[in-house]
Design a protein that fits this description.
The structure is a homodimer. Chain A has about 230 residues and is mainly alpha-helical. Helices cover about 65% and strands about 5% of the residues of chain A. The first copy, chain A, contains ten helices and three strands; from the N terminus they run ααβααββαααααα. Chain A has a three-stranded antiparallel β-sheet. In chain A, α3 packs across α4, α5 packs antiparallel against α8 and α5 runs antiparallel to α10. Chain A is globular and about 55 Å long. The first copy, chain A, binds a DNA duplex (30 and 30 nucleotides) through α4.
DNA sequence: GCAGTAAGAAATGTAGATTATGTGAGCCGC
DNA sequence: GCGGCTCACATAATCTACATTTCTTACTGC
């Protein structure tokens, strides 16, 4: 279920790990960034060639990812990139709203100076990170990292590593959908939206913070629905 | 994240699958049933010998389980059974109460005849399954299966496969704790408790059903806390 | 057109080589 | 003498290469 902090740190410092873990990280990123077609088969040999590794590490990476639902595994038939659908996205957004509402409410209820500092700091970083649309070059990973850091800061005080983990797992999946509509999301005014969420949270206004947070998710969903509808989906 | 229905069916019918999947299932059960000591190292060769398999399938099974947090993986150091602690259990119970409350509320709100039928049926099965304490022989897996089926029926109408999956993942982990205190749980009066939950749910009384459900989890937690305290833990 | 079948492709499993970790004896500095 | 360091060896994880099994597909005959 996502990378733990140790792994993220290790990856950040470029430390050596196992080949299986290296493939796991790259494959994960490629799936999240939409570098594979949804539904596509991930043939072991091809994946091994792509990342310059043997088949065994690839197999281990795929098995890990299958437990995270980031690949579909069919015994004796291989591994596949999970499909995307508006139906699934709706369910995902709905569940995110439920769980992040709880996590945010608990965080606000138990708020500490450290939690507030985290929000202020990660918002500052996020607000100073430019959003790159596909037309401008496309690599938006810095924004993606900071966006996630901000949302994690919001829920970090909820007192449940389980809940934080679930929210992160769903953030991963949401990221997949984000890349199929880079032109509408992230939007330019997202800094304002995030600031409003931050302010409500720091003010201790539980209901307002929850509303603003979930409205953001629902708005993004609606944008995507309209876009798909317009495209004749 | 737990077995999907296809896998459970396949396992139930004894269909052939891969060696990796066979090891995965057995290892999973052994961990849930407490057949390994918490914190214990799972040495590849030993595990392979135990289940009469090669090292590769074991490795794949362990990698899958590591993504479910049912084993801890340390690169280049091996795999370990996750430790148990009262601290972790409290967090787990707290999170279960949050998530199952939502799932139950949504299920009741969207209730359908099919959902009600599922509850009645699984409760009937559960109520007719004897509870075997360790003194009486110990194999309580039939009760365990039906108990889980009942709780799954309660939340099955929530409209989110994500949420159902999360609840099941936590049920798995709760099962580990249950086995360290078989003498207090499952209790003999659990049939009554489950009946009360069912009645509130079928009556459409959201608040009462949620209270009864979460009270059951909290009561079990308290029993365990008292037992550990009495044992001088 | 459909069932059966056989060749090829691909997943799975095994064996052994390779690499990393942990351990303990011996050595150095204090 | 004691604590800490280094280095060699034992143990175990990891990876590669290859063998085996299974699935897919295209072809044949009815």
């Amino acid at each position: 279920m996502a990378l733990n902090e140790t792994e993220i740190d290790a990856a950040g410092r470029g430390e050596k790990t196992t080949a299986a873990t290296a493939v796991y990280r790259q494959l994960r990123q490629d799936i999240l960034k939409g570098n594979f077609k949804p539904g596509q088969k991930l043939q072991i040999d091809q994946v091994a060639t792509r990342y310059g590794s043997g088949t065994n590490p690839v197999r281990e990476a795929l098995n890990r990812l299958s437990s995270e639902h980031l690949v579909d595994r069919h015994d004796q038939r291989g591994f596949f990139v999970p499909p995307l659908s508006m139906e699934r996205l709706r369910e995902l957004v709905k569940t995110r709203c439920w769980l992040e509402s709880i996590a945010l409410e608990e965080s606000i209820t138990n708020r500490t100076p450290g939690w507030e500092d985290g929000i202020v700091l990660t918002f500052h970083h996020l607000s100073r990170t430019p959003i790159r649309t596909p037309e401008e070059g496309g690599d938006n990973s810095e924004w993606e990292v900071r966006h996630r850091a901000f949302h994690n800061a919001l829920i970090s005080g909820c007192g449940s590593t389980w809940l934080i983990g679930f929210c992160n797992e769903m953030m991963d999946h949401a990221e997949r959908y984000r890349y199929i509509s880079m032109s509408t999301y992230p939007r330019r005014d997202s800094v304002v939206e995030h600031r409003l969420i931050m302010e409500a949270a720091l003010d201790g206004d539980v209901e307002l913070a929850k509303t603003r947070l979930t409205d953001q998710y629902r708005l993004t969903l609606r944008h995507l629905e309209e876009q798909v509808a317009a495209a004749g989906g």
